[in-house]
Amino acid sequence: MDSIEQAAINTVRVLSADAVQKANSGHPGTPMALAPAGHVLWAKSMQYNPQNPEWANRDRFILSCGHACMLQYSFLHLTGYALTMDDIKNFRQLHSKTAGHPEYGLCPGIEVTTGPLGQGFANGIGMAIAEQYLAARYNRPGFNLFDYHIYAICSDGDIMEGVASEAASVAGHLQLGQLIYLYDDNRITIEGETALAFSEDVTERFQAYGWHVQAVADGNDIAAITTAIENAKKEKQRPSLIRVHTHIGFGSPNKVDTASAHGAPLGKEELRLVKEFFGFDPDKSFMVADDVLRFYREKGKAGVQKENDWNTLYRKYKQQYSAEAAEYELLSSGKLPEGWNNDLPVFKPGEKGMATRKASGKMLNAIADKLPLLIGGSADLSPSTDTHLNAFESFGSENRSGRNFHFGIREHAMGAILNGMALTKGIIPYGATFLIFYDYMRPPVRLAAIMKIRPIFIYTHDSIGLGEDGTTHQPVEQLIGLRSLPNMMVIRPADANETVQAWRVALEHTDGPVAIILTRQEVAVIDQEKYARATALEKGAYILSDCEGEPQLILMGTGSEVQLLIEAQQQLLLESIRVRVVSFPCWELFDKQPAAYKEKVLPAHIRTRLAVEAGSPIGWGKYVTDDGDVVAITQFGESAPGAEIMKAYGFSVNNITAKAKALLKIK
Questions:
Q1: What is the model's pLDDT at position 352?
Q2: Is residue 411 among the annotated active site residues?
Q3: Could you tell me the sign of the dihedral formed by the alpha carbons of 104, 108, 111, 116, in that order?
Q4: Do 178 and 232 reside in the same domain of the chain?
Q5: 28-49 average pLDDT score
Q6: Which of 161, 307, 411, 588 is catalytic?
Q7: For a 10 Å CB count at each end of the chain, is N or C smaller?
Q8: CA 508, 509, 514, 516: dihedral to nearest 10 degrees?
């Protein structure tokens, strides 16, 4: 190894340890161990451009073990990203770019927010799927516009988490050969040696998944790491796992290979010993020699030329394939094609209703041809969730242009894979399962909300109304769980036409994930000639049906229960009780409306209000005053036909009218 390379690697080690020590918080041992692997990635293997972190054909890097983020921050700073030494010194401080775990959108060069172990591992599979889909749609002979790799560093903790197993299985099945993951096999976790809880043969496990697995015996051997990565690049059909044996806290005389090097600063005295071990002045901190900085900055500048070469290729491509280039430029800008929503389905009322899941499927198929980067599937439930694009094939190892995805019974991985897909410009991914199984995918949904990215989550079988499947499959607390997430938009449409508008709003939304909540059971199609039009869904809540004169009572609700409100209104009208019905499909949209609109829908002086929703009552208090009430669910359901259990649990016209009259003190 050249002396400059060794000096560069040791600089990353000491710089990382300095930042953790100054913050008095963090994880120094893993960056110290992984500095050689990081050096190979940023100095030899990856194509990237610090001057344009968004270059379309850059290699993606994911630090799945996000606690080791000082490794990534160090390389971003040294190679020339917009991350200063002051940012490094402000590690883990208020409003700093250098958060305690890498955060997408906060720091340039961070591809995805990581920290919860296993998530980054699975995100990479989504990024690889997106790359393959873009390549299949846009690449042409002589024009490999999209041929980048997805690199990741993952830890023992990532490998142990169940989501990694789910995602690794998907990657092997799909033969995603552009995945190159370095597994930091340091045999240490927070509690001590991994042998306390982890004894499987990881190599054989990943080979069984269909991965190409190599081992590097010494994590300090950059030649061996380089060779392993080159071998991985040559492997086109299997994702690659490179098992790198490292020593956590390498260079720390007293803490190397111990759990004490993992999650706490080394301590001032131990840090002095580390600096002496690597030949640094122990009395100085945050030192980067000029020749080391020059070395890494030159590596970063090399990416400028790589992007220039790609831009030249793209200009030639654009001349020859102008339609394809125009489509990609439009969609990757975040815009939708002009006229995409000109012919949205419109459903007319009839004797037979329509489950909103069915309406969703009809909407998807109506718009699919106009939105070529709208791709997705379900967790083995497309016949039940109605998410299959009928005119298109399935994405697989032999067909990268397919638009239907089969995630298998892997909700957790599906959510994380969707996030990886959503982080690829232009791609609009969706994934579907039953609402009750949202519980299996809470971590990626939360991370999507943190990142403000826009996967679309479709959740069907949305209440006890699903019926005979019973308690285990009937969601109660899931709606409020989703609504409690900042940056999350939750839409529960009342009928087929509101479902169409829910999709329209979801596709036009760009500032966070969207969950569309749909029924299994049929619901009546509301007459848009008699009542308000469903396009009003974009305001979150709207007056669906009003009365003559000032209302005595406001009935509000979501989903299948809205039909009950309309019927209750008619029944109360027979008793000369004036009632307004408000369809309330999306709290988040309503909360963003001007005060004047909110006052129009829910006048402050009309205190008697009744909300009806087949879910938890939590949260309705901000719309229902002390003079009001909520018909909701505070217990688990049971196995019975849907109509019967809904009635038994109070979701009937008679119960709603009785509650309304009780609030009005009318016998």
A1: 85
A2: yes
A3: negative
A4: yes
A5: 98
A6: 411
A7: C
A8: -40
